[in-house]
Design goal:
This protein is α+β, with helices and mostly antiparallel strands. It is built from 3 helices and 10 strands, in the order αααββββββββββ. Helices cover about 20% and strands about 55% of the residues.
Length: about 190
Amino acid sequence: MGHFLKRKSLSTGLFIAVALLFSPAKNSVAQEEKPPALPLPEMQRLSKLYIGTWTYTETYPKSEFAPNGGVNTGVYTSELGPGGNSIFNHFHSKGPVGDFEGVMVMTWDPKEKAYKAYVFGDSFPAAIVETGQWEGDELVYRSEFSAGGMKFALRNATKFLDGGKISSDEYSSASGSPEALLVHVEAVRK
């Protein structure tokens, strides 16, 4: 119990220290540099598009990952994180390609002037970190990682369609090979 309280105190202390660091003190330089209004406009834009509960289908072409191809179905729920500066997306799909569950957290990084997404799943360790930008009418996230001695690149392109629908394509490339479609997703807001 003492170990738990010590960890809780450290966590609480860290949270307070970070909050104080970002809170403007009276008569300080931080006071003169007015912090941005929250939530940031970039996150307001995403929240209008993502927040809610969605049903979706994942269509997998035949590939090394899905030798027979197939269609999974699932549900995901997107909700605002603290202060509206992040979106938490909980997802779960199942079908002939497998049973997948995970969480994705999206936010805006003002220093990079880019969206960041952190994807945690039951079928891979750690997190996949993606960087995103609007490219025309598509929100495109890219990431790179290494596994099994190979370098992988992922690109996810999402379009927001009329009628509360989303269309998203995830492409992958291994060790510089041409991109191949990994999965096509269509989602409808409930």
